[in-house]
Amino acid sequence: MDCLFCKIIKGEIPSYTIYEDDIVKVFLDISPVTNGHCLVIPKKHYENINDIDLETLNYIDKIIKKLYPILKEKLNCVGITRTQNNEYGQDVKHYHMHLIPRYKNDNINFRKNTIEMKDVKEIYNILKMED
């Protein structure tokens, strides 16, 4: 397997690891969006949200919940954004969660529309699930 994150887990590629246990590894992103931007990855290879089991997902959330107050305290950030890409936009095909510390005036704007959007009601009608 030629997975970048699997190589990091095996120690073949160095990383700035801030937490590690038998299930996950957390390390600083080498192309950070803000100071302290880190990645939480499972040590077992899962490609994306379709592959990973709920137990591992829940464990990742548990680790994020532990990390959040530490990031806030040590980096003096005012919040955190967590994001995870699947397929399109996923540079490394190994499930990973981005933890992006947020700072006042960091100029990150997830609400800025860069394309023409469909009406919210139209999208709702397309996506709503029937019982």
Brief sketch in words of this structure:
The chain has helices at about 5-10, 55-75, 120-125, and strands at about 15-20, 25-30, 40, 80-85, 95-100.
Molecular structure report:
The structure is a single chain. With 131 residues, this protein is α+β, with helices and mostly antiparallel strands. It has one domain (4-127): HIT family, subunit A (2-Layer Sandwich). Helices cover 28% and strands 19% of the residues. The protein is built from 3 helices and 5 strands; from the N terminus they run αβββαββα. It has a 5-stranded antiparallel sheet, covered by helices on one side. The longest helix has 22 residues, at 54-75. The chain is globular and about 50 Å long. The N and C termini lie far apart (41 Å). 18% of the residues are buried. The model has no long low-confidence stretch (mean pLDDT 89).
